[in-house]
Write a structure and sequence with these properties.
The longest helix is centred in the N-terminal third of the chain and has 14 residues, at 10-23. The chain has a six-stranded antiparallel sheet. Helix 2 crosses helix 3 (47-59). The protein is of the alpha+beta class and 252 residues long. It has helices spanning 10-23, 36-43, 47-59, 83-93, 115-120, 153-157, 172-180, 198-203, 208-211, and strands at residues 63-66, 70-73, 102-112, 128-138, 141-151, 184-195, 215-225, 230-238. Helices cover 30% and strands 29% of the residues.
């Protein structure tokens, strides 16, 4: 959240700074990053730390090293983001959007729960649920189409959950936790590759005749509160050309 201390290692802070500049378009493809020496001087770190920051950017596919020239920014779509990753990002930075991302096409309403959704939410098939959907984009196009399925009882506590507009005052999970007094305690994530259906093609704004043989990355997440209630089921479809990537520290 805003105001929290940034405890990341210096090289990670440098890499995050340039990741933001690259993915937001402030540094265009073909631009050159400062040299290792200049980075070290600007950030008051060792050249080894500056080199490690550039290596991290190379490993993430954001830049490439050109012998005798320097480090060049690449033109490459960012990985897709999932509901679970956006929850982590929001808790860490105060914003669920990735660098350079925006959302649009917000739609919401109360509908009968499809079988998969009812099972995920521990409800009877056909039970009323809130369906919230939106499209996340960056300068390359669709990052992911995201749908949140929420038991209708939470709409009685928080009417804006069923309104077709961006939420205010926090994410759906934050609003539910505030209204019930029960924080989200854990989640169950899954990932799969599925063949694009006509419905997937429509949601991802693709031509069905040209894309039905292509696979799509589908990420799901079930969010459970401290009382054991499943409060939300998220389904994310990866946009065209997107991959799914995670990163974690590995202790020696």
């Amino acid at each position: 959240m805003a105001g929290q201390a940034d405890n990341r290692a210096p090289y990670a802070k440098i890499a995050a700074h340039y990741t933001e500049l690259i993915t937001s378009g402030q540094l265009q493809p073909g631009s050159l990053l400062p040299s290792i020496k200049n980075l070290a001087e600007e950030w008051k770190v060792s050249t080894a730390t500056a080199e490690k920051a550039l290596r991290k950017l190379r490993n993430e596919g954001l830049v490439r090293g050109i012998h005798g020239i320097g480090t060049e920014v690449l033109d490459q779509p960012a990985p897709m983001s999932s509901r679970a990753q956006r929850q982590d990002r929001g808790r860490r930075t105060g914003s669920s959007w990735g660098a350079g991302e925006r959302s649009d096409s917000h739609q919401a309403g109360v509908v009968p729960a499809p079988a998969e959704v009812a099972q995920a939410l521990d409800l009877k098939p056909g039970s009323d649920v809130i369906r919230r959907s939106r499209v996340y984009r960056d300068r390359h196009g669709i990052v992911a189409h995201s749908t949140s399925w929420i038991p209708a009882r939470y709409g009685k506590l928080i009417p804006q959950l069923a309104a077709s507009e961006r939420l205010t005052g926090g994410t759906s999970l934050q609003l539910i936790a505030q209204a019930t007094g029960h924080p989200i305690s854990h989640r169950i994530d899954s990932a799969s590759a599925r063949v694009i259906t006509p419905e997937y093609a429509r949601l991802l704004e693709l031509d069905p005749e040209d894309s039905l043989a292509e696979p799509v990355v589908v990420m799901t997440a079930r969010f459970v509160d401290s009382e054991g209630n499943v409060v939300e089921y998220g389904v994310d479809l990866g946009g065209p050309g997107r991959t799914w990537r995670t990163e974690s520290e590995v202790s020696p």
